[in-house]
Amino acid sequence: MSWQGYVDNLMADGSCQDSAIVGYTDAKYVWASFPGGTFVNITVDEIDIIVGKDREAFFCGGLTLGQKKCSVIRDSLHADGDWTMDIRTKKLRFMQYNGFKLVQEGFI
Asked: Where are the domains of the chain?
């Protein structure tokens, strides 16, 4: 299955609001995404902040993801076997995107 196929499967039942597969080592860009979603706009700078060593700064000030302001609820990105972060967008017109999973190369 292609990365776009994986995104399409995540979106198929309507339980996800947005989805993207993002490279974070050598190929830092959005590999696959939901067309028209927020995550299609994830930038290299945003990727660098998410995977960077300064884990405390975004708990206080938040971060942007797809150029949307977000709050970090839980950070287990560097926890072996987890590699997840719970991120919520700031409420805007009753829309809120919950959750973000960074896919480590070869692992989902």
From this structure: 3-101
Residue 62 is encoded by which pair of tokens?
């938040």
pLDDT in tens, 35-85: 999 999 999 999 999 989 888 888 888 899 998 898 888 888 888 888 888
Q: What are phi and psi of 75, to 5 degrees?
A: -125, 105
How many C-beta neighbours within 10 Å does residue 48 have? 11
The alpha carbon dihedral of 46, 47, 52, 56 has a sign of positive
The dotted CATH code for 3-101 is 3.30.450.30
Give, for 84, the enclosing helix (H) or strand (E). strand 84-89
Q: Are 82 and 75 in contact (CB under 8 A)?
A: no
